[in-house]
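Chain A, query sequence.
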Amino acid sequence: MLKNLDPALNADVLYVLRSMGHGDTLVIADTNFPSDSIARHTVFGELLRIDNVSAARAFKAVLSVLPLDTPLQPSVGRMEIMGAPDEIPAVQAEVQAEIDAAEGQSAPMYGIERFKFYDEAKKAYAVIQTGETRFYGCFLITKGVIPPASA
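Chain A, predicted structure.
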């Protein structure tokens, strides 16, 4: 254990989050997502895991250390439900609550059509698979910056 770090963040996840730069993207996926095969196409090239937690719990952990690129654009995309792209299932509403809490304001997610999501996920820096069992618990995050203390 380390002080001030969420215990859900393992060494591999921390390494990747630190290695990412501004504008790099990260996939946080549910257990049904083809995480391993998609991860092989990413910059990191290997699947990361935050097992036995929901998507919202994984978001809470990741957002405790990762800045979002929210000042300029929406920074979290959600996989849209096929046939109901504007519907927000409970898993996505829970993640939205974690995003808003981390940002201290409303930071709405944007929708990504399912098959486009797969294509975009292959371009990501890395994929983290969670223990989320509910459908449509798949998200694409854009990393932001931490300004200097004097800014």
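The chain has one domain: 11-142. The two ends are 32 Å apart (CA to CA).
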